[in-house]
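Incident log, structure service

09:12 report received: a user says their structure output differs between two submissions of the same chain.
09:20 pulled the input from the user's history:
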Amino acid sequence: MVLLRQWTIKKSLNNLGRVNDLTALAKSSNVYMFHIAMRLGGADYEYNGPLNIDPSAFDTIRNTFSQFGLGTLTGIDVPNETIGYIGSSTLGGHLLDFVIGQFDTYTTMQLSQYINTIANDGVRVKPRLLLDTTETDSTTTTYTNPVQVLSVLENIPAIERVQKGFRQCVTDGYCVALNNLPVTVAAKTGTAEAFMTDEEGNYFDSPNSLLVSYAPYENPEISIACAIPHAWNTTSQSNLCLRISNEIYATYFDSNKN
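09:34 re-ran on a clean worker, output below:
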């Protein structure tokens, strides 16, 4: 738990105790990420005190995230792609929000490129809807849209740790609902804060359901980026993306097997 002066308490969903990087990914330890953010910002944390940080930490994190496709154009071959919202504040509390995905916003296509970059061992590829075109009356190819590598991450050991953490999310974490499939899956859950109003105009929490995943873990061939707005409410208290992704994987691999 982290408490800053004039901020509400910041914490993980559950009290996880001491965790390493793998468990932090598998069980979504916000506190683990908070401490990373504090170190990046050169902060000296004091309970219920101010959090003074180097504002360049925001740029450092954004530059790193962009190497996975977050907060930048993915390059998909359709017009009018957007990059989402980029926060302008440089307050210490917002840096903590930033590292757990509660400050800048990302498109589902960016989330797709992010999980694919991890599955591809750090190689970020431009997404394509069109592979090629041919003449209507022949097989002559008139246009080819080749694979384009946008960037390559050099810290392979770090990528491998993330991959292991995502796999552990399925075997012993918040993605365990995907562990009953006939293939090995790596995944990461997310719960973006969101709000709705009732008929009387009263606000209530209604977070978005998020999940990124790929399979098989050892040799990926399919990935899923699922985002469902306002999926968590008083009548639905489970990650719907887990259920949807489970069905997609089951259908895909069953079809390929047959």
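09:41 both user submissions now match this output. Likely a transient worker issue. Closing.
09:42 reviewer note: The helical segments are 21-26, 30-40, 56-66, 92-99, 108-119, 156-172, 240-257. The mean pLDDT is 92.
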